[in-house]
């Protein structure tokens, strides 16, 4: 996509990403495809081919969406470690490197944000179903 079209496309992609629920996100995807499909079919195909994976976070509790939308949580978690371990001399021995990484992660942990709705994580692990971020109660027919 040329640089001149990127600001508008970026805004449209952010509307998909920040939609209030799956239905609004799907409408935003359709609008993106309609607006840019004729001019940039390959770019639209790359962005819209796997919408199920793109919108999978809507199948989890709404409290968790902010964490699931994160673009690279692992990289941000270990950025402190990466910045301090890439030095010309190195850490010395493997044991010293492991100890240094442990202490860096331990000190960085104090700045990490706690998971919103942590009590819902047990329900997710147990296989509870969520629609638009709300827990779907099983009917009595399914429970028996």
From TrEMBL:
Role: Required for the transposition of the insertion element.
Protein name, entry field: Mutator family transposase
Keywords, sorted A to Z: DNA recombination, DNA-binding, Transposable element, Transposition
Family that this chain belongs to: Belongs to the transposase mutator family.
Keyword Mitochondrion set for record: no
Coiled-coil features, chain-numbered ranges: none
A Pfam family that the UniProt record links to this protein: Transposase_mut
